[in-house]
Structure formats: structure tokens, C-alpha cells
Amino acid sequence: MNSLVLHPMKEVRVIVPGEHQGFVIEIFDALHISGYTIIKNLAGKGHHGLHTSHTMFDETESRLMIMTVVSEEKVAPILAGLAPLFGRHSGVMFVSDVSVSRLEYFSESSKK
Asked: Selecting from 3.30.450.20, 3.10.290.10, 3.30.70.120, 2.40.30.110, what CATH number does the domain 7-110 have?
């Protein structure tokens, strides 16, 4: 039986108003990030006060989180790309150390 091997990577979580989803995805696409997960309608309290997950008209009014796993080399370019957004709008980025067992799922060559 083959045992799994873990590879160190970085998990990036970006929380922004829904209207900025396209901007974040454009940065990820420009950096050839092979995949991401979007969780919509977040609720919580932060620097700008309480945010509810209730939407009046469409999802662009609520907060969302876009998560991805990348090599350490891509973290700085992501932050640089998000700097203009964070300079004008609310939002945060979290970076954590993670380990993945299927490294090929997180590489540029895995994109189909």
C-alpha cells in the first residue's frame, strides 16, 4: 500500500463584498491559480461593523470568501494584486500554512 505524502502549501482566504468577486477571480486567473472555492452570504462583525448574510436584491450586497491553496511564491503577487482593492474598500486576506496530499491538484499544469 502506498502511503500519502504531505506537501507544504499556503491557504489564502479573501473576504470581500460580493461586488468584488470578479476582481479577486481575475487576479487568481492572471496568476494561473488552478482552483478556488467561493463561500457566499457570510455574516460577522469586523472593522466596518456588523455584516449580515441577508441580501435584499442580489448577492453582490453580502460578503463572500474566496479560498485557494497556492505555493508560497504566489502569496506576494496575490497581496500585490489585492492592494488597490483593500486601499479603497473593506476586505481582508488570511494566509495559513497547510499541507496537501495531492500536490498535482494545486499546480498550474492541473488546469484543464
From this structure: 3.30.70.120
